[in-house]
Amino acid sequence: MVQDNGKQLADLTEELIHMHQDPQKTLDALVDEFSSVHEIHDDVVRPYKPDPQPPQDFNNVDLFERMPPGYTIHQPQSLQDLINTIAEAGAKKLPIRAAGTCYAFSDVTFTSGYILEMNRYLHKILDIDDSVLKDDSAANVRTMCKAESGTMIESINEYLWPTSERENPDSNPANWRTVMNQTGYQGLSIAGTTGVGAHGSGIDKPPMPDMVLSMHMISLDENGKVTQFCIEPTVGISDPAKFRQKYSDIELIQDDATFYSAVVSFGCMGVIYSYTIKVQPAFFLEEYRYSQPWDTTKQQLPQLIADNKKSRGDPGALHSFEMWISPYPVKNIKTKQYEVISVVSTYKYAQPPAKGKRPPSFFAPPSANEALRIAVVNACRFVPEMVPLMMHTALLATLEKSPVTMPSTMALDFGSPNSTKVTVSDCGMDASTPDKIIAAADATINLFQDIQKKNKHQFATSPFSLRFTSPSKALVAMEYNRDSVMIETPILLKSPGADDTLRQFRNLMMSKFDGRPHWGQVNDMTTEKLVNLYPDTYLTFFKTYQKFNVSGLFENTYVSTLFKDLH
């Protein structure tokens, strides 16, 4: 039926949307119409995000389905167990890779040797030994948190600010703490996010690696003997004399070049056992999501950036803002013009208690997200004229009729959509001026439209996002040394031509906008690209890699491809 009446359905959907009917009900009707049209077939299955797991349950759906055979799985249960396992691999001269919660879309964790499941057991919050800290650091221990590398962001937040306290209207957030920033999904590990330079939201907020104060890394020397390092910036939190007296088996390195090389090194220099990170007093945010034409949002962008850069407490100050854009125009019933629509999410600092509630789309079960994915992919194949309307309706289903106040930990989490099965690339571009941000976003819109004009079935089947971050000091972080706009382009699993669409997106961002691909998402980084994108830092990074990976066992195909022309 839908193949014969696709245009009629599209017209009807437009009318429903512009009559201000409940977008969630419209979306549910479309899902019912398309989810069983035809069995989906595809010749390429990229990694996807599985259903959410309870806190600290290990998820191996992605990694162990994709990774070629030949590896062995190891689950260290303590620091000493981790050291023994690395020593065993070194004695056998087998390569070593550590895995967090296995949500990486790239092949960065692949190995033919030992794969270490850090999230299985090494997910504890650790005591900070203030006896080895400098006096000023010891006086500020409350601004720090130390965790084993397999610990999820969600678990760190739960330790710092328990759910029972967030939900208690009589609890004062100032008595609790939270991370300096967080990724849009809290089910990721601290090592998995930090090691690839992951980001949160806020053009004046640090990306994940720039929250790190100190890290405990385990590696191997040229003879295969285990070596341990505590790595910090030049002006670090540890007192060298006190530290060396107490921990003679761990070498303290306080050096900017070493620290900012190792903090984003995607496991190629050793295995991180733990991180000490900066934290801050807990707080609430007021979220408001509204839709408007992208052309209108472009006009607002300078003010949004200015408000984001204001100090907390200043009139109109924003903690952060994000944008979601469906690149395919839909018809405005009133003007009869086709417009690209955007959704803007603003986050203002707010006082408790919680007020209002996000729309149902944020709490949909994974089965509902899977039904939507199947419906959209089927529409791509059989009734492509429906896809822009379905994407538009899905965006509208995220809107809020009035602002919603909630703990920051909830506001900065994407919610249920994290369970949707996708493949995705993300690139960081220069956000020093609004014009540069707009140019990169417009180019993305035009690219996706051009691809679909050449092949009417090939869509970027999910809205893409614009999120912002302050500069990173990490030498090969996507956000290195510049305010950055991160354009993330998720595409529903099995969408026709998804790999080609993402490849064209990355190539455009790199060639025209100096875009740096996310290390943990789909990318095809090479030596040439590394040198071109990080011309001032790649050599320092490579020399640090050579120093710590002297055994050669923390390398895999991904890393060797990256460095093959530098040896």
Describe this structure in words.
Helix content is 34%, strand content 21%. The protein is globular and about 75 Å long. 50% of the residues are buried. With 567 residues, the protein is α+β, with helices and mostly antiparallel strands. Helix 2 packs across helix 13 and helix 11 (256-262) packs across helix 19. Strands 14-11-13-12-16-17-15-18 form an eight-stranded antiparallel β-sheet. Strands 4, 5, 6, 7, 8, 9 and 10 form a seven-stranded mixed β-sheet that branches. The protein has helices at residues 6-18, 23-34, 61-66, 79-92, 118-121, 135-138, 153-160, 163-166, 190-194, 240-246, 256-262, 294-308, 366-382, 387-396, 408-411, 434-454, 498-513, 527-533, 538-548, 557-563, and strands at residues 72-74, 96-99, 114-117, 125-126, 144-148, 177-179, 212-220, 226-232, 251-254, 271-281, 284-293, 320-331, 338-350, 404-407, 422-430, 464-469, 484-492, 516-517. The protein contains 20 helices and 18 strands.
